[in-house]
Write a structure and sequence with these properties.
Blueprint lengths: L3 E8 L5 E2 L15 E8 L3 H6 L24 H6 L9 E6 L5 H14 L4 E5 L4 H11 L6 E5 L3 H11 L3 E5 L16 H18 L3 E6 L10 H6 L2 E6 L6 E9 L7 E7 L2 E4 L3 H6 L9 E8 L2 E13 L7 E3 L4 H15 L6 E7 L11 H13 L7 E3 L2 E2 L5 E2 L4 H10 L4 E5 H6 L7 E5 L2 H8 L1
Parallel strand pairs: 4-8, 4-9, 5-6, 5-7, 7-8, 15-16, 17-20, 20-21
Antiparallel strand pairs: 1-2, 1-3, 9-10, 10-11, 11-12, 13-14, 14-16, 18-19
Helix pairs in contact: 9-10, 10-13
Bound molecules: thymidine-5'-diphosphate (TYD) and magnesium ion (MG).
Magnesium ion binds next to helix 3.
Amino acid sequence: MSKKSKILFTCQSCGYQAPKWMGKCPDCGKWDTFAEERIVRGPTASRSRAAVQSEPVPIDAIALDQENRSLTGIAEFDRVLGGGLVPGTLVLIGGDPGIGKSTLMLQALHGLSRQNQKVLYVSGEESIRQLRMRSQRLSTASHNLLVVSEIDVDAILSMMERHKPQTIVIDSIQTMFNSELTSAPGSVTQVRESTLRLMLVAKQTGVPIFLVGHVTKDGAIAGPRVLEHMVDTVLYFEGDRNHVFRILRAVKNRFGSTNEIGVFEMKDRGLAEVSNPSAVFLSERPDQAPGSIVAASMEGTRPILVEIQALAASTTLGTPRRTILGLDANRVALLVAVMEKKLGMHLMGHDLFMNVAGGVKIDEPAVDMGIVAAVASSFLDKPISNGSIVLGEVGLTGEVRAISHADTRVAEMKKMGFIRCLLPESNMKRMKDIKGIELIGIDTVENAVETLF
Ligand code: TYD
Ligand code: MG
């Protein structure tokens, strides 16, 4: 039987295909991204399996079996997954090289193996000796944790049939290879085909599969967005390599809430959970220093307290410098303009530097008042008393607007020992009575700054 083959040129950035080579991709606009790939049209394993006939059924006739999630025992990880691992899920874990994806996966599999699950770690990047050395360091050796160094998808599928593992990790999807395709591992066509075949197996057998994916410089998982819609859950493992904290973020989850985060710390014996991130992010906060304030930001369902720092230094430059880390620079520019106009603070004559301690990024209007307070505190050179926090979104006329999840944030502040909270007047009305923390309503920035200083 002769298989029909066809040559196509595929953009390695977005997956666009064309019959001839092009210098610039008409779809994503990138230059020099086309690579030649021979596509074989034949009855490949995945396609013949996909052709298994299925019949539509009424939705209410489907049995609702008890959701049977398995737990890795790493609480932060289980929470980001939406409360454990659903059978048959395909989870993509993306992140920069060296951020700790393989470490996290090995620890998670170890957690599952301790509950007598037989699990399989497939590495296309490391030899089994290297895996053994890593597991020694992490103390994750277990008889139920099988490891193999393999890149051929066919071999992995037959291995699954023989050994019947209950959870699988593929590290990484970019190293996987289908022999029917002639293009190199890591090309869009290979990555897409490998993912498709693994997805079919996951759905048929109910075995959850984790796919590790490297992220390209511009932030997309290489081989790229095509993967994000094929999988059930997309997690990003992020963090600054210069900081020890790592944040695991769900950006898509068919079985749980997105924007849920898990915080980890990279130690010499692997990743440790940080179950109280607020305490960690606030641990180095200076005492009574002008320009420093604590803000409460919601990360998924969880409030996290972080320290915002501002430094306003007078300048003789015609255009003052604005260096903003961890916050949205446009948002800060807007708030500075409001402060000039409403508070009469001459910030045009000042360079402004802002930072969120610990390498955290916040992007939420509820911290507007925190930013205003930090800048005002540095500008006036007056500290904000240590036990105080300010919440609120700021509008262009200087009004302080209501924020979401006010109760949860206030509860977290109270837990962390704060004694005074300034929050929007409109939230005050709906607040439950909370003891042990003084709540003060504010309605304009003028009013807030007057109360603070
Ligand atoms: P790794 O899991 O290999 O990253 P990825 O798979 O995302 O590329 O982690 C690599 C980094 O983590 C490496 O720079 C060393 C560091 N590390 C530790 O600090 N402690 C440890 O116990 C381990 C295993 C790694
Ligand atoms: Mg790795």
